[in-house]
Specification:
With 241 residues, the chain is mainly alpha-helical. It is 53% helix and 4% strand. It has 10 helices and 4 strands. The protein has helices at 3-17, 37-51, 56-68, 90-100, 108-117, 122-131, 144-155, 159-170, 183-195, 202-217, and strands at residues 105-107, 141-143, 181-182, 222-223. The strands form 2 sheets. It has a two-stranded antiparallel sheet with strand order 1-2. The protein has a two-stranded antiparallel ribbon with strand order 3-4. The radius of gyration is 27 Å and the shape is elongated.
Length: 241
């Protein structure tokens, strides 16, 4: 074989190793980056840091699936100190509400799906469903606000703490303002929570409802946690569990 032939053969092998004869080697100027990509990745990174997902791959799949479907992604509003054993937190519960608050009734299957996206344990979900006396059938629908209240029961111990947390999660007010909710919502959730604790006298429950209904009349039908602190307000300090 001549030297020219050997040289040509060697060049061909080198070209093959670099991507094949005839294949183009693209310069940075030839590569088109989608206009949305930098901003999308920047927002994704910020959301991941703020949410601190336990399983980044599972969370990422849920995140981009939600965006593709035009849904709210599983993202916390604020960063919380990372704790491997913390489980359900205020910000996670708030994020779940943000995802599902457009619905009055939500199926157990929907809750399970959103729950898993935050890496929460199934045992904790089952505990809440048992506390609320809800069946665990995937197709069964529960009142979403009642489920949020059950979640608040994991974060607070007294009825007052639970209702205060609930108000902070479902209020339409910005975080820096006093949270308020319609009296009708307060009444629904307060009676639901107190019925889970059988030793609260019916007369006491009615006294709280009657007192706060008068306060709501003075506040355009709204109730806020400061109303619970009034000296003549019947006590909300019963411990749920």
């Amino acid at each position: 074989m001549s030297k020219d032939s050997m040289s040509s053969s060697s060049s061909s092998r080198s070209a093959s190793r670099m991507g094949g004869v005839g294949e183009s080697l693209y310069s940075p100027e030839q590569i088109r980056i989608p206009n949305e990509l930098p901003q999308l990745l920047k927002k994704y990174t910020k959301d991941a840091i703020r949410t601190q997902p336990k399983d980044i791959l599972q969370w990422s799949a849920a995140y981009f699936r939600a965006l593709a479907n035009g849904e709210e992604p599983p993202v916390k509003n604020r960063l919380e100190l990372f704790d491997e054993s913390s489980g359900l937190t205020f910000e996670i519960l708030k994020a779940l509400h943000h995802q599902l608050s457009s619905k009055t009734e939500v199926t157990i299957e929907e809750i399970q799906h959103k729950w898993e996206n935050f890496g929460l344990k199934e045992e904790k979900l089952n505990k809440l469903l048992n506390l609320g006396r809800f069946p665990k059938e995937p197709s069964f629908s529960v009142n979403w606000l009642k489920f949020v209240a059950l979640g608040c029961g994991e974060l607070g111990s007294t009825i007052k703490e639970i209702m205060t947390l609930f108000s902070k999660i479902v209020t339409k007010k910005p975080p820096e303002e006093i949270p308020e909710i319609p009296f009708s919502t307060f009444s629904l959730i307060y009676q639901f929570i107190t019925k889970l604790k059988e030793d609260i006298p019916e007369g006491h429950i009615n006294s709280v409802i009657n007192f706060l209904s008068i306060q709501a009349e003075k506040q355009d039908g709204m109730i806020n946690p400061q109303n619970y602190l009034l000296s003549d307000c019947p006590s909300l300090d019963y411990v749920l569990l």
